[in-house]
Amino acid sequence: MSLVKEIQDIGVVAVIRGADESNILTIAKSLQAGGVTALEITMETPKVLSLIEKVASEMPDVMVGAGTVLDPETARAAIMAGSKFIFSPTVSIDTIRMTKRYGAVSIPGAMTPTEILTAYEQGADMIKVFPANIVGPGYFKDIRGPLPHIPLMATGGISLDNVGDFIRAGAVAVGAGSTLINTKVELTEDHCRHVTETATSFIRRVEQARGGHYEKV
Predict the structure, then answer these.
(1) Which of 55, 111, 138, 150 is deepest in the core (most CB within 10 A)?
(2) Known catalytic residues?
(3) Which of 212, 133, 146 is nearest to 174 (CA)?
């Protein structure tokens, strides 16, 4: 199975900001227990390369990638540390090319039809529409009309309340941040259980939405 298809099959990518070496594995294991096995660790995190390497080496059943990647040099460093996919907030053609050169999955951020098509034509595997909560689910339905061949992912403001709407509207996956994992909260046993339960709920709602259809809300 390709990494792109695996991400789409899971349907949920956890966006992790502010983790550190003391809690990254606990976070990853809590998410994995709930079925979320695709993790994006954002590059503004201190010592992020060591965190990526730690998860990649100690949890081979989890796909770990880098987020907020702004340039090709950072993409290469993240891939060398073990990143399987590279998320960018914008369309950087050089970053897309570097990512593909090293065999990783490229998921740049775009919003307009021109940006989406440009990124895909330059080799991106999937396009992250960001911020998704600003444009809403209806935008995905509209974009899927003229560009049905381009896989779109919804990121930004994704919650349990709206994840199903985005999936029904045509998003192949979603990225969820603080609504899924809040690294500012102490990772007690109870909180870890809450993370697992939330991850399970996200996965369940994606699966339920894939069995339904889009209705304008």
Answers:
(1) 55
(2) 40, 128
(3) 133
- Identify the pLDDT of residue 185: 85
Checking if the pLDDT of 59 tops 80, the result is yes
**Stretch 36-51: mean pLDDT, rounded?**
97
Rg (CA), the chain: 16
**Superfamily per CATH, domain 3-209:** Aldolase class I (3.20.20.70)
Asked if omega into 108 is within 30° of 0 (cis), the reply is no
H or E element: which one contains 198? Answer: helix 189-210
Structure tokens belonging to residue 146: 């003229």
- Residue ranges covered by each domain of the chain: 3-209
Handedness of CA 186, 192, 198, 199 (dihedral sign): positive
Tokens for 137?
Answer: 């689910």
d(CA 9, CA 101): 24
Q: Model pTM? A: 0.94
pLDDT interval class at 216 (50, 70, 90): very low
Give the H/E segment covering residue 154.
Answer: strand 152-155
Got the DSSP string for 32-89?
HHTT--EEEEETTSTTHHHHHHHHHHH-TTSEEEEES--SHHHHHHHHHHT-SEEE-S
Q: How many CB atoms lie within 10 A of CB 29?
A: 17
% of residues, the chain, pLDDT over 70: 97
Task: Give the whole-angstrom CA distance, residue 123 versus residue 66.
Answer: 18
CA distance 139 to 127: 14
Instruction: Tell me the average pLDDT across 100-118.
Output: 97
